[in-house]
Write a structure and sequence with these properties.
This protein is an all-alpha fold and 166 residues long. It has helices spanning 2-26, 28-48, 51-76, 83-114, 118-132, 135-148, 162-165.
């Protein structure tokens, strides 16, 4: 009888981790599209270095933040049922929060540059770069933890945008 109870709980536990995984993976396509918009804006800026293109980068950063901000409550709303699922959930949330923070700092840096405040722009950009260094490792931790829970993401971490894979 106890064995039947344990067997009945095992699929439910996996289902809870599946909910966390599905919430994490479901947000990848909008993030990839926003990342492509960011890449295109950045390429345009490198060619012309115009204020217009800096504003396009700011718009693309905001679009990325909106896409990421939709994933956070979806992942947070799911309860993991295993230790690996909980680690994956925490790493995924860290990945999103740190990325949003880095983008906000970058937006501040670009706005300072537009205002002619180069010292402030440089400081904020360095801080944004240091902050972003935590995004990729958190994404890789999330994918490793999901794999330990029995789920494999075909896309990899959310922070591993398509344009970074080629």
């Amino acid at each position: 009888m106890a064995l039947l109870a344990l067997l009945a709980l095992a699929p439910a536990a996996r289902a809870d981790d599946a909910g966390v995984f599905d919430a994490y993976v479901a947000g990848q396509p909008p993030v990839d599209k926003a990342g492509t918009a960011y890449r295109n804006a950045f390429r345009r800026y490198r060619r012309s270095e115009s204020a217009r293109d800096l504003r396009a980068i700011i718009r693309a950063d905001r679009r990325l933040n909106r896409a990421l901000a939709k994933i956070v409550p979806a992942v947070r709303g799911e309860e993991a049922s295993s230790r690996a699922g909980e680690r994956a959930r925490n790493a995924a949330l860290t990945e999103m929060r740190v990325w949003i923070a880095a983008n906000r700092l970058q937006i501040g840096s670009l706005r300072a540059a537009l205002a002619g405040r180069t010292g402030r722009s440089d400081r904020l950009f360095r801080r944004a770069s240091r902050t972003f260094e935590g995004v990729i490792p958190a994404g890789k931790r999330a994918v490793r933890s999901f794999k330990a829970a029995g789920f494999t993401s075909p896309e990899g971490p959310v922070s591993d945008l398509r344009f970074n894979r080629s």
